[in-house]
């Protein structure tokens, strides 16, 4: 790979890795109160990075990474949401300084699924434009305290999920039609908050780069029938292009806008929003990719009520791709070439540099003595890194690769049964133990892969 511009990294997110619930002035987040099935770990301890920070950064240095993609916990920096929390700010100052001292570039994301629960209670969270102002206030705090040392910034992680997952944003509307309308309104407010944040960033952080982190959707039609091809294109607009078009161009795709207007779901806007949305373009696009998606046209009368909200329309539904290998946790199948296909398409549409912010394989890893053998993860990462090299060789501007995740962390609804880490965290859903860190075989492989690229 191109050596001067390329960062080898690794990723985590605050609510999935930090723990430290109620410590150091941290407020209550939506991720702290969501309904978790009995017997599944929540985020209150997670991987306990709050108490293992120095050890984790030492392991990063030993690994040889030069980029740590993490997230700020909104409620650690702003408490319940309204006032700065100095203890939380000092925690991230320590994290950032330790990274820099060890040759690691910090790459935080401002919003990775968690937000102050108090906002949901006070004004329905992202349903209100007040949340836009609160997000900009929070971003300003981060830029003021950390912008002198932090030059890579993510805005919103996977807006698709952030706007659709009720337990992350508090949209518990019982009426299904109204719930969808609120979902699209929340998404619009997130986009507005992102644009105001970019505008502020330009004024306050010198020589910095900022951009969204998208859940990249590589969409294949289940068959070459025109109905399935159209369904796949509609899915691309609803699952990806609506977010990135707004981030980069300041507008939605026409087909997406028409559908929302016809359903009565188009968000309420203000006239002055248009210029703000258009004029504040990001510097790069973060890419989260695990697998591709297969889409087909909806059959007449087909029930989609059990699908995620973003699939609940008449334009498309999930199909099946028989050409990919599926595993317990990777039910859509493993598709390394999809990374190449998707990133190529994103560059041709938006012409912005890209960084792989998340890419990884979930598996129920087991500790064998003091070792974890995970050749399946090595194979997955190798194949996807090869696609990054292919993109760079063809001239596409990819400036980094970050496996998800640096260490095992709590998955949204599967706790510690579903593991992605290069480093094993010795705990179970029921027994926290000491959260001991044990590098897996993939950790040592990745270390050699980084060294061989120099």
Structural key phrases:
three-stranded mixed beta sheet; TIM Barrel; alpha/beta; eight-stranded parallel β-barrel; 454 residues; 13 strands
Kindly describe this structure.
By secondary structure, this protein is an alpha/beta fold. It has a single domain (about 5-215, about 235-290, about 335-450), classed as TIM Barrel (Alpha-Beta Barrel), CATH 3.20.20. The protein contains 16 helices and 13 strands. The protein has helices at about 15, 30-35, 50-65, 75, 85-100, 115-125, 130-145, 160-165, 165-170, 175-205, 225-250, 255-265, 275-280, 335-350, 375-395, 440-450, and strands at about 5-10, 65-70, 105-110, 150-155, 210-215, 220, 285-290, 295, 315-320, 355-360, 400, 425, 435-440. The strands form 3 sheets. Strands 1-2-3-4-5-7-10-11 form an 8-stranded parallel β-barrel, surrounded by 4 helices. A 3-stranded mixed sheet has the order 6-8-9, with helices on one face. It has a two-stranded antiparallel ribbon with strand order 12-13. Strand 10, helix 15 and strand 11 form a beta-alpha-beta unit. Helix 3 runs parallel beside helix 5 (about 85-100) and helix 10 packs across helix 13.
What would you say about this model in short?
The chain is an alpha/beta fold. Helices cover 43% and strands 13% of the residues.
């Amino acid at each position: 790979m191109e050596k001067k511009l390329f960062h080898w990294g690794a990723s985590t997110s605050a609510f999935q890795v930090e723990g430290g619930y109620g410590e150091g002035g941290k407020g209550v987040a939506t991720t702290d109160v969501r309904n978790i099935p009995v017997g599944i770990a929540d985020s209150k301890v997670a991987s306990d990075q709050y108490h293992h920070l120095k050890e984790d950064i030492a392991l990063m240095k030993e690994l040889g990474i030069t980029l740590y993609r993490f997230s700020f916990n909104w409620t650690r920096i702003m408490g319940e949401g309204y006032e700065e929390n100095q203890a939380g700010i000092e925690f991230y100052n320590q994290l950032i300084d330790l990274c820099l001292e060890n040759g690691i570039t910090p790459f935080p994301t401002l919003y990775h699924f968690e937000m102050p629960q108090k906002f949901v209670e006070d004004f329905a969270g992202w349903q209100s434009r007040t949340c836009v102002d609160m997000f900009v206030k929070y971003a300003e705090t981060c830029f003021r305290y950390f912008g002198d040392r932090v030059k890579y910034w993510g805005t919103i992680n996977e807006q698709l999920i952030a706007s659709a997952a009720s337990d992350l944003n508090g949209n518990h509307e019982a009426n299904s039609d109204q719930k969808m309308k609120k979902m699209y309104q929340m998404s619009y407010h997130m986009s507005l908050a992102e644009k105001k944040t970019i505008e502020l960033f330009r004024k306050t952080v010198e020589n910095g780069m900022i951009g969204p982190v998208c859940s990249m959707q590589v969409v294949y039609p289940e068959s070459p029938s025109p109905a399935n091809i159209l369904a796949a294109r509609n899915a691309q607009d609803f699952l990806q292009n609506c977010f990135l078009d707004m981030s980069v161009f300041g507008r939605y795709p026409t087909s997406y806008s028409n559908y929302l207007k016809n359903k009565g779901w188009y968000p309420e806007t203000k006239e002055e929003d248009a210029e703000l949305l258009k004029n504040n373009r990001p510097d790069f696009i973060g890419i989260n990719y695990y697998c591709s998606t297969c889409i087909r046209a909806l059959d007449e009368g087909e029930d989609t009520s059990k699908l995620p909200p973003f699939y609940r329309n008449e334009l498309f539904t999930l199909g099946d791709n028989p050409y990919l290998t599926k595993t317990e946790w990777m039910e859509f199948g493993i598709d390394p070439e999809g990374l190449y296909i998707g990133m190529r398409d994103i560059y041709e549409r938006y012409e912005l540099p890209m960084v792989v912010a998340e890419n990884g394989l979930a598996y129920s890893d087991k500790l064998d003595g003091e070792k974890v053998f995970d050749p399946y993860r090595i194979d997955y990462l190798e194949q996807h890194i090869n696609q990054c090299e292919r993109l760079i060789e063809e001239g596409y501007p990819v400036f980094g690769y970050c496996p998800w995740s640096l260490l095992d962390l709590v998955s949204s609804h599967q706790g510690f049964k579903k593991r992605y880490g290069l480093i094993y965290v010795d705990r179970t859903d029921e027994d926290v133990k000491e959260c001991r860190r044990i590098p897996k075989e993939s950790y040592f492989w990745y270390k050699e892969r980084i060294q061989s690229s120099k």
